[in-house]
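Severity: low
Component: inverse-folding endpoint
Summary: output formatting inconsistent between runs
Steps to reproduce: submit the following structure tokens with default settings.
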């Protein structure tokens, strides 16, 4: 029997690609880089903000007309990019995203069954809590953990095991609901 459920956030509960693309493109503008397509951003999402930022910058620097000189490498741009991305994402979080159809009924059903729920995402926990509140989902979860909650992120098993501990559930009896290989 299932004792508890942990659920990923981005791409599972909420379609957040619009938020990511808007924040990334504002960041790129701040760095004097061309905007990224939604496809480029979608390809880079799912392994945390650092991976997203680095992957998109690397792609944009490789576009025709972009020069890779000492001051224009991913490593040289990363710190400024991180700061600008955080700045923009904090202001945009939830504005270009929608709760997937069927999410609310599923959460209500699981809550009515008495199953403890946790949100486990690679998104920084502050952003996760803000998004869950903005979308009316926060009250369903006994705990929320982000990519900065533990020493390692998904797909490492540590966050899942620590979430089981917080839910007082055995890993073999805890369901993980997600949308990517990081959750699998």
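Observed output (run 2 of 3):
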């Amino acid at each position: 029997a299932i004792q508890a459920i942990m659920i990923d956030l981005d791409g599972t509960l909420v379609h957040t690609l619009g938020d990511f693309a808007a924040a990334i493109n504002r960041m790129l503008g701040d760095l004097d880089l061309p905007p990224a397509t939604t496809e480029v951003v979608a390809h880079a999402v799912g392994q945390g903000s650092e991976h997203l930022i680095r992957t998109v910058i690397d792609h944009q620097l490789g576009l025709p007309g972009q020069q890779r000189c000492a001051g224009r490498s991913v490593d040289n741009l990363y710190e400024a990019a991180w700061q600008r991305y955080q700045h923009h994402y904090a202001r945009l979080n939830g504005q270009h995203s929608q709760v997937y159809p069927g999410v609310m009924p599923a959460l209500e059903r699981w809550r009515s069954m008495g199953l403890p729920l946790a949100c486990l995402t690679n998104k920084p926990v502050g952003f996760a809590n803000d998004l869950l509140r903005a979308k009316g989902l926060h009250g369903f979860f006994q705990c929320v953990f982000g990519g900065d909650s533990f020493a390692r992120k998904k797909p490492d098993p540590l966050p899942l095991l620590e979430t089981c501990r917080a839910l007082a559930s055995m890993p073999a009896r805890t369901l993980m609901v997600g949308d990517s290989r990081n959750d699998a």
